[in-house]
Amino acid sequence: MVSAQLTHLRHVDLAVPDHDRQLAFYTDVWGLSRTADDSGVAFLAAEGSPEQYVVRLRRAKEKRLDLVAFGVATRVDVDALAGRLAGDGVVLISEPGALSTPGGGYGFRFFDVDGRTVEVSAEVAPRRHRRIEAREPVPVRLSHVVFNAPDIARTRAWYERYLGFRLTDTVRSPRDGDLMHFLRINPQHHSVAFSGGPHTSLHHVSFELRGVDEYLRASGRAIRAGAPKLWGPGRHLAGDNAFTYFLDPHGNTLEYTTAMEEVDEDTWHPHVYDASRAEVTDQWGTSNPWDEQVAKESLNDPDRGCFVAPPL
């Protein structure tokens, strides 16, 4: 089914009522750089990333996920993917065309199986970025995004069939069955994951730090700034990455991470990890336990943007 291979995750776009407070948090506390503004919309970049922005914040009456964006190599790939999706009945929000966001490019938008808006683009001009120095606690790039879905088997199958994602690992509960699927589009262990939940929503957005020292320094800065720490610091088994989770001012979960595992496509076989084993959630044993409060916050609010295209 897939006619074009996604290359990477570009950005996550959020809408929030208290835009100014959210913007201050993402710049002053989280370490992103404000690069452009346009009447209640702010574009935020990671200093180490060539992407024009990794987060877009839009002022709105209701909190929602506006969209998640991925890259492909060429506009031919954009057209091919749009044609295949439309031909199979996937609802296109926009036809392929020029993008008016920073960096321009060529892309289109569509609804996924759960109603999230997805954007795919090519030929976006790279941003002039820089090397992140030792001990510098700012994000290098956007690492991955995790979504809650009522039926993760269905959502996983849709992303595999239509967008070419490949299953890397699964976390399973002996009592409740599959809890989370980790999916990749490049050698990184996962660019997206789907977690089982009662409603469609954003689970968390993750940002890569240069290394363990920078990750801990960034975590410490957020703690000292009073950001609510949800879970961590620790190190997952699936992905082998470090984690500390915080809540932004609107209750979205954000993660600082580093040292994500890379996959050898020729030799990799997906694992099924038993969630009842403590080392699966945290190899180090340094984080607070995964409890009902952490689980509740990770479910987030039901997404008001399902099958409703963002206004821009």
Mean model confidence by pLDDT: 97
CATH architectural name of the largest domain = Roll
Largest sheet: 9 strands, mixed
The CATH homologous superfamily of the largest domain = 2,3-Dihydroxybiphenyl 1,2-Dioxygenase, domain 1
Instruction: Provide the β-strand percentage band.
Output: 35-45%
Number of domains: 2
Spans with pLDDT under 50 lasting ≥5 residues?
Answer: none
Outline, from the CA principal axes? globular
Total number of beta strands: 17
Count the helices. How many?
6
CATH topology of the largest domain: 2,3-Dihydroxybiphenyl 1,2-Dioxygenase, domain 1
The helix fraction, in percent, is: 10-25%
Q: What class do helices, strands and sheet pairing give?
A: alpha/beta
Regarding CATH, which class of the largest domain? Alpha Beta
Radius of gyration: 18 Å
Organism: Streptomyces buecherae
InterPro entries: Glyas_Bleomycin-R_OHBP_Dase, Glyas_Fos-R_dOase_dom, GlyoxalaseI/FosfomycinResist, VOC_core
Protein name: VOC family protein
Pfam family, one: Glyoxalase
